[in-house]
Amino acid sequence: MPVTDITHDLETLTLTITAQFAAPVERIWDIYADPRQLEKVWGPPEYPATVVDHSLTPGGRVTYYMTGPEGDRHYGYWSVLEVDQPRSFSYEDGFAHEDFSPNTDLPVSTSVSTFTAQDGGTRAVYVTTFASREGLQTVLDMGVEEGSRTAIDQIDGLVA
Questions:
Q1: Is the model's pLDDT at 83 over the cut of 90?
Q2: Which single residue of 71, 77, 134, 156 has CA 20 to 30 Å from 121?
Q3: What string of H, E and C letters represents the secondary structure of the chain?
């Protein structure tokens, strides 16, 4: 299992996920840079993702939806802030309506994904920061920790 640690901190309003992959940094980067590969790991297995738009460049946008077991769809977007290929990227992460306009009833966060070479593989650290304690608690109540773990754990199968 790639995920080695998940912590949330209601004081700093962060959710941090650490993972270790048996693949080089460039290979892990390629997953996020390619929408077809990203689809295989962005949602948990029971909520697979479909990427609609994908521009992993500063000012770019990634839009997607996850389809649940009953056919229900859950829409989201990234507004890409910074990219340091293949080491890191940051983005505003939000929930969306079917037309991919932001759903302001749900929290928006800022996420930073960092990849570093370690022990012949890649150490990935995903830090998500929320604007409020309520926003962080909302996603925790939605099951973000377990959903993220099962989604990220799919990366090993993709890079094998």
A1: yes
A2: 77
A3: CCEEEEEEECCCCEEEEEEEECCCHHHHHHHHHCHHHHHCCCCCCCCCEEEEEECCCCCCEEEEEEECCCCCEEEEEEEEEEEECCCEEEEEEEEECCCCCECCCCCCEEEEEEEEEECCEEEEEEEEEECCHHHHHHHHHCCHHHHHHHHHCCHHHHHC
Tell if the pTM clears 0.85, that is, is over it: yes
Q: In whole angstroms, what is the distance from residue 35 CA to residue 64 CA?
A: 10
Residues 21-72: pLDDT tens digits? 999 999 999 999 999 999 999 999 999 999 999 999 999 999 999 999 999 9
Which residues is 92 bridged to in the sheet? Answer: 79, 110
For the chain, give every domain's residue range.
Answer: 3-159
Question: Any idea which architecture 3-159 has in CATH?
Answer: 2-Layer Sandwich (3.30)
Name residue 27's amino acid. Answer: R
